[in-house]
Amino acid sequence: MNYTYPELSKMIDHSLLPPTLTWDQLDAGIDLALAYDVASVCILPYALPHLTRRLAGSTVKTSSTIGFPHGGHTTEIKVAEARQAIDDGCQELDMVVNISKVLSGDWEFVKIDIGSVITVAHDAGQKVKVIFENAYLNDAQKIQLCEICGELEADWVKTSTGYAPSGATVEDLKLMRAHSPASVQVKAAGGVRTLNTLLEVRALGVTRCGASATAAMLDEARARLGLDPIDVAKTVVAGY
């Protein structure tokens, strides 16, 4: 096997974004993320202060959403969201482009919209993942977004929010990797639910995946690697 457990666990942004999650369910999700030592927990902005406290002292980063899920917020609101998120401890910001403006070909607006959030985040030493929502775009639009994100020095380009008709596809991931500079990473979101799929996208150059099937994928990885299974309750109590 050409991977270690940390190489896989640190690919995963554990997603806790359904609006129906209760507070207890959110806390259970954070427990799971800590136990499996994933890359980050992505949570709705209102819960960021709590998430920041829960993750303190761990290697799991805080992430949250900007302009989510449809990207239609004004740029000023996206900037305000970004500043508030950073003040609340957010280390990685997943922002949605203005999909209407992309479809309309208003690239100057799109560039300003994305760049404004990146500037706020980078000035604070934090990172940005730019969500394209590929289900609604053609290849030329995806390529143009990759080029803009490269110019603006985004940290990741990301396929989708999970709320569109489809999520990450192999074709889109190949295209995004091919048309993004090496300095810009690629995140797959929507559809990565098995270890085999995680390994497949890893081979394409994907470095992060938004996932809710975290335990299933990483349990299988540990089994294949001959590692002990994780007991979430014991790990959280013992380690955090």
What can you tell me about this protein's structure?
The protein has a single domain (5-239), classed as TIM Barrel (Alpha-Beta Barrel), CATH 3.20.20.70. Helices cover 48% and strands 15% of the residues. The chain contains eleven helices and eight strands. The chain has an eight-stranded parallel β-barrel with strand order 1-2-3-4-5-6-7-8, surrounded by six helices. The mean pLDDT is 96.
Radius of gyration over alpha carbons?
17 Å
The CATH superfamily is Aldolase class I
Give the amount of beta strand, in percent: 15-25%
Helix/strand order, N-terminal first: HEHEHEHEHHEHEHEHEHH
Residue share in helix:
40-55%
Q: Globular, elongated, flat, extended or rod-shaped: what is the shape?
A: globular
Class per helix and strand makeup: alpha/beta
Query: How far is it from the N-terminal to the C-terminal residue, by CA?
Result: 30 Å
Instruction: Look up the CATH topology.
Output: TIM Barrel
CATH architecture: Alpha-Beta Barrel
Name the average pLDDT.
Answer: 96
The stretches of 5 or more residues where confidence is low (pLDDT under 50) are: none
Oligomer: single chain
Note the main sheet: 8 strands, parallel, barrel
What is this structure, in a nutshell?
The protein is of the alpha/beta class. The chain has helices at 5-9, 23-36, 48-55, 75-87, 99-104, 107-123, 139-152, 170-178, 195-203, 214-225, 232-239, and strands spanning 12-16, 40-43, 61-66, 92-96, 127-131, 156-158, 185-189, 208-211. It contains eleven helices and eight strands.
